[in-house]
Specification:
about 500 residues, alpha+beta, Resuscitation-promoting factor rpfb fold, 4 domains, 26 strands, rod-shaped
């Protein structure tokens, strides 16, 4: 340690000697040239300065030459020094008005903050050289911005995002950010955007850290990684602040709640009307159906753009559906017992000349035979309606009905009246007494048993035991096709 201290002492002595020698040499040069100068003109008295703070601190020519040799220091002398409070801003060249500097300072701060102290000019001894107006202005601005002030901090999840002059400005900044997010995402007025876990606290901070509303809104957006556009912002200042400040380490959660309407169809129903003047199996559309519409309102929640929930909060019918109306016939008709095409009624119900006896007599049913050139022997015979076989007779006699079947249909055809059907002159039958049969079921085959002159079917309809005209209860004289095919009943 002693050796190092000795070295420093020797170095300082050498530097002092070198400085003294330089000063002596310069002074010798100055005085040797003084005699060669032209005689100075008679001095002219200058007018008095217009302000009290001004002073003549022009450095003489000799001092200027010394300044060139000595650097930024000059021999101590009287000068105008500007102060912000007790903080020295710099030496004035004698032309800087503190009031003008204060006005420029206010303009430079642009209302961001207010200086707590005044700029003053003091005449004092200093070895510093005058600096420019801009340098004094920058020094004054730094002095103001470095002052500590009370502000309102905007915190998210307990971490400071930025500070504003007051809580109202901080809340306006948050509102501006959320509005910008809604605009960027084209959200409607029924949607909301919120930043979760926001709080406001009073804090002490440098004035340079206090943001206006637009700057704080951008700072919030940067912390949330939201790319939004906010006008009237000095982005260079934002970048400078973000480079030095401790921003929240975790990405902030922007919660977006969207109310979305979805319209869906309400399927129309089908109503049936029944017409007892139309046969069973008849069907026609009276009115076409029209779907209705219903609107569901959903609340969809996103966090940082990711959907986390969707909940239906309401529904409303916009248009009621119109049901389709179909008219169905309910009048019961007997099925034709034969299906071979071109079957003809060879003998109707009522009076006739008997084909065997040649005597006029009553005919209790209708005779169904084939065309004149055809033969229907062996064709199937179908049950005209659901019912129960009450009689099933097999006979090779040449008189009467021969082989025949009687089916009891109960009141299926006529309400309150019992109806039965008889099928005579069969070649053979496939049912037995007591057996239940279905409409269209094969019960036998056409023949010519009993009092018959050729293959045909004698078909009777009895209402409460009395013979009636079978054609009254048949849907149509048009035969042909599958007897179970009900399409012929549909218009």
């Amino acid at each position: 340690m002693d050796e190092r201290a000795g070295y420093i002492k020797k170095r300082n002595i050498l530097l002092a000697l070198l400085l003294c020698a330089t000063v002596i040499a310069v002074m010798i040069f100055v005085f040797s040239t003084a005699g060669n100068r032209p005689e100075a003109a008679e001095p002219v008295e200058e007018p008095a300065p217009d302000t009290a703070w001004r002073a003549d601190v022009e450095a003489p020519e000799e001092e200027n030459r010394l300044a060139e040799l000595l650097g930024d220091k000059r021999p101590t002398g009287e000068a105008i020094v500007l102060y912000y409070g007790e903080l020295q801003l710099g030496v004035s060249d004698g032309t800087v008005d503190p009031a003008a500097l204060s006005a420029q300072l206010d303009a430079a701060l642009d209302g961001r903050c207010t200086p707590d102290q005044k700029i003053e000019a003091r005449c004092e001894k200093t070895s510093d050289y005058p600096v420019s107006f801009d340098a004094l202005l920058n020094a004054a601005a730094d002095a103001v911005l470095d002052e500590e002030t009370t502000a309102c901090g905007l915190y998210v999840n307990g971490a400071l995002v930025g500070a504003a002059n007051d809580e109202e400005t901080a809340k306006d900044a948050l509102s501006s950010f959320l509005t910008a997010v809604k605009s960027e995402q084209n959200l409607g007025s029924n949607s909301t955007v919120e930043l979760r876990n926001v709080s406001y606290r009073t804090l002490k901070t440098a004035k340079r850290s206090v943001m206006n509303g637009s700057e704080l809104a951008v700072l919030i957006a940067r912390s949330c990684n939201e790319d939004v556009t906010i006008s009237g912002v000095d982005y260079a200042r934002i970048r400078e602040y973000m480079a030095s400040a401790e921003l929240p380490s975790e990405e902030l959660t922007v919660r977006t709640v969207v109310k979305k309407n979805e319209t869906v169809a309400i399927p129309f129903g089908v109503q049936y009307e029944y017409d007892d003047s139309k046969p069973d199996g008849f069907s026609t559309e009276k009115r076409a159906g029209v779907d209705g519409t219903k609107t569901y309102t959903y609340e969809i929640v996103y966090e940082n753009g990711k959907q986390i929930s969707k909940e239906k909060i309401s529904e409303a019918v916009v248009q009621q559906p119109v049901d389709r109306i179909i008219v169905r016939g309910v009048k019961q008709y007997l099925l034709w017992p034969l299906s071979k095409e071109n079957v003809r009624v060879t003998s109707p119900y009522g009076g006739r000349i008997h084909p065997i006896t040649g005597v006029w007599s009553g005919h209790t049913g209708v005779d169904l035979a084939g065309p004149a050139s055809g033969d229907i022997k062996g064709d199937p015979i179908y049950a005209a309606m659901d019912g129960t076989v009450t009689t099933a007779v097999v006979s090779r006699s040449s008189t009467g009905y021969g082989t025949y079947v009687i089916i009891d249909h109960g009141e299926r055809l006529i309400s309150g009246k019992n109806v039965s059907t008889l099928y005579a002159h069969c070649n053979s039958i496939t049912v037995k007494s007591g057996q239940a049969v279905k409409k269209g079921q094969v019960i036998g085959y056409v023949g010519s048993t009993g009092a018959s002159t050729g293959p045909h079917l004698h078909f009777e309809v009895r209402v409460n035991g009395s013979m009636t005209d079978p054609l009254t209860y048949m849907y149509t004289l048009s035969i042909g096709g599958d007897p179970l095919d009900t399409k012929k009943f549909t218009k």
